[in-house]
Amino acid sequence: MNFTQGFRDSALAQKLLENIRRKSKTPANIMEFCGGHTVAIFRYGLRELLPPHLKLLSGPGCPVCVTASADLDKVMALAAVPGVVITTFGDLIKVPASYSSLDRARAAGADVRTVYSTLDALDIARQNPDKKVVFVGIGFETTAPTIAAAILQAAAEKLSNFSVLSLHKVTPPVTKVLLDAGEVKLQGIICPGHVSAIIGADAWEFIPERYGIACAVSGFEPLDVLQCVNLIVEQIEAGTPKVETAYSRAVKAEGNPIALKMLDTVFEPSAANWRGIGEIPGSGLKIRSEYAAYDADKLFDIKLDKPSREPAGCLCGEVIRAVKTPEDCKLFRKVCTPENPVGPCMVSSEGSCAAYYHFAEVID
């Protein structure tokens, strides 16, 4: 048995399910913030195994999905600048901006390159000193430290043709906004595992303290998720909401101090625009003035010649807020498919629409 198989043990899963079914009496909406959890829940058919009165709802937790069209349009504008090389992770390539996508821009001649890490982007910059290499930084607290490290490395090398367009977002502020809005009544939250590995489980203390909602941090294997739901059910039934973790092999209460220091060195909080939600103060990360030489937002005069717009008929904004499901969208499976995605939730590997598309039909 390898390490991963140990977290997919069917006998242990059955015991956890029996515990949940025996203890759970109260109907509850439980939101998984992270798109990785959404995919795991669908892949292993966990929704159908839980008691019917426990409803799992997909939240906003896919950084590509929550990136606003206006920000994607800035990326497209950068891709059109002569001499600029756009580098980014694969999920972003096919995401539609208001009028095109990086995939289409590349087909039309733009220099757009998929990378697996920021180290690849740095290498491209070193190998192309006559080009301006821009890394599109989209992600939550999980990926932001690696991008901060790339900026520090570029500064150490005095690499003058590398920069980052920082579209990073941080997760606690948007969680507060969703809970304050109250569009969906929640009794429990599955907190994001990888984000919590950076910021620490203590970062979610506001959920039980301010909102009286049960919560626990989860990993991404089926036993992780079931153990997390088990902890949340125990909190709900006992009436004692608190922060617990079912992902202790990766998450500490205080987080990762080295990563947090790196984030604080390179970035500072800023407002960020979230798809379907709008601008949220303090929910973004902008590059500090000390590293302005690596800030694409300052290096390039990015102007949009057309107003940004959302894809007609697309419900990604509502899906992100959990007020709609992908199956509520008239475009789902008909017009919008992985081969022809209309919105980002169908493109991203962590998108709710993609998870429903690939797994819901099998489960049904």
TrEMBL record:
Keywords: Iron, Metal-binding
UniProt xrefs under InterPro entries: Hyd_form_HypD, HypD_1, HypD_2_sf
Keyword Iron: yes
Pfam families: HypD
PANTHER family registered for this protein in UniProt: HYDROGENASE MATURATION FACTOR HYPD, HYDROGENASE PROTEIN ASSEMBLY PROTEIN HYPD
Family (UniProt): Belongs to the HypD family.
Protein name in the entry: Hydrogenase formation protein HypD
Natural source organism: Candidatus Dehalogenimonas loeffleri
Gene, per the UniProt record: hypD
